[in-house]
Amino acid sequence: MNQLQQLQSFSTIVADTGDIVSIQRLKPVDATTNPSLILKAASQPEYQEIMIKGLEAAKNQPTQASQLKTAIEAISVGFGVEILKAIPGLVSTEVDARASFDTRATIEQARRIIQRYQSAGIGRERVLVKIASSWEGIQAARLLEQEGIHCNLTLLFNFAQAQACAEAGVTLISPFVGRILDWYKKSTGQDYTAETDPGVVSVKSIYQYYKACDYKTVVMAASFRNTGEIAALAGCDKLTISPALLDALAENNSPLPRVLTAESCSAQPRLVELNEAAFRWQLNEDAMATEKLAEGIRLFSADLRTLEGKILTLMA
Hints:
Layout: H1 3-8, E1 12-16, H2 20-26, E2 30-32, H3 35-42, H4 48-58, H5 64-84, E3 91-94, H6 103-119, E4 127-132, H7 135-146, E5 151-156, H8 159-168, E6 172-175, H9 178-188, H10 198-212, E7 218-221, H11 227-232, E8 238-241, H12 243-250, H13 276-285, H14 287-315
Parallel strand pairs: 1-2, 1-8, 2-3, 3-4, 4-5, 5-6, 6-7, 7-8
Helix pairs in contact: 3-14, 4-5, 5-6, 6-7, 7-8, 8-10
């Protein structure tokens, strides 16, 4: 078996792309999108019908701001609906990154996203609403999960974020690997092996804590820079991987052993539950996580503004 086939035997493979053609070719179980991926896909001619339908959904809104909000939500869900036709599992659709520090706005948009999927004949059980792992985002997810809306907490770089997500009962977290490595390489000037990679070490510690404490939240490692990082986390519940790295795994026939197993995680007591002050302090003490969370929100926001510009041009 090639490395992708070996990996599929002990981790659920998720495609990290908005490109439906790639998803149809690679046949992952799940797929996840973000504003950057939607922007990239929306620029391709084969997806113009999704764009047109999104514009149609927004045309009767009374203001330009409400038209843009409606169009982006409709386009994001439009991609999700098409993706779900090509996979057996779940799709993640992200809320507006500019609501990352607004619990109420995050909840309201999550509800609208689920309503759009339901109007398209897609049950909420096939959708994960993707939310940044800010304190406000985590509290929004806590309330949404109680309503039966399942959440994927993204831009997660720090153990405190992971602990708070588990305590909030979120369905799934997306701890980032490659972006953590990027920060440490820039900060220290050092190179790292797959085993010493700070992003890999971070995900391992989260996985081990979750399994040891019997948290049900799924760990889906994300943001990979190379196949070595992926191999070092083989056995993680889920792995969301770009098409380029999925292809690289499929072309490699070398052995890829399982590294992570729930059975190998020794039982331990749960930590004292985090309140807001403790969460913010622990995040503040982690320069990497503080910087990468803020940067990630800014980048997703910038891509949303670019997408809005594209929509305005089409509306003209």
